[in-house]
From TrEMBL:
Top-rank lineage group of the source organism: Bacteria
Protein topology in the membrane: Multi-pass membrane protein
Name of the molecule in the record: TerC family protein
Keyword Transmembrane helix: yes
Subcellular location: Membrane
Residue spans crossing the bilayer: 6-22, 34-56, 76-99, 111-133, 139-156, 202-226, 232-252, 264-283, 289-308
Keywords associated with the record: Membrane, Transmembrane, Transmembrane helix
Family: Belongs to the TerC family.
Amino acid sequence: MLVWGSFICLIFIFLALDLGVFHKNEHVIKSKEAGIWTAIWVTVALSFSAVIYWLFASGIIDNPTGLTPKGAVLKYITGYLIELSLSVDNVFVIAVIFSAFKIPPIYQHRVLFWGILGAIVFRALMIVFGVALITKFEWIIYVFGVFLLYTAFKMLRSDDDTFDPKKSMVFRNIKKLYPITTAIKGHDFFVKRMGVTAATPLFVALVVIELTDILFALDSIPAILAITADPFIVFSSNILAILGLRSMYFLISRMLEKFRYINYSLVVILAFVGLKMLFSHHIEIPEWVSLSVISMSLVAGIVSSLLIPQSEVSEGV
């Protein structure tokens, strides 16, 4: 429990420094600043692999799956890359939500900050239940595997689907439960006018992003559980990945059109992890193979997006 408590405290220290010190004065996050912060978060996450090695080598942390220190590090990095890659798809949706509710760029960091807090709580609960299910019912891994394959197929077929947050069930239910104003007053989530407290577009965007993250977690958490059932590795790799999601959003949201093939990378990753789950009791796939497939899929998607001109894509449609 000491290790878990220390890690959670470290996360909240990071968040407090982020909002209270480095982003105390609200401003529009430029690409250069976002790039620097993305590099910082990735460095922090990868450096944490040294902590993982030390924890498993010293025996300070419980090791229910019997991992070696080197094996724990490989599974941590693989899990981190899976969550980081699947977060790219989340960036696309966040951009659509901010655009639909006309959230000014100067307040977007604040919305994402509070969204991260909620994501930490919800993902912790999902990880605890997911690990418990796999530990108690080994057959559940097949359910997760089929679900990931279905998600990959659905993602492959959803190129032409458009997501409109204002037509979503979440937005309709919020309107029924609470008054909503179209006015934005600073960074406030609620405003009071004529004695009535109403939610601003910032709050609505926050709720929609929060619930959307839960839906994305339904994909990413089973994917990481395919790599390892060790709860600390699953939790730490997941949380450190989503901590960098905000800076990643500001870095690549302005270049969405350039990453035309990244969805195909995600399809390959989800399909591979799903198949790995289905054959987990029959074929043992080395961790370096999983890490290689995930890394190569991401690199291939990014390189293809940058090298193949847009005109060629348009002509082929």
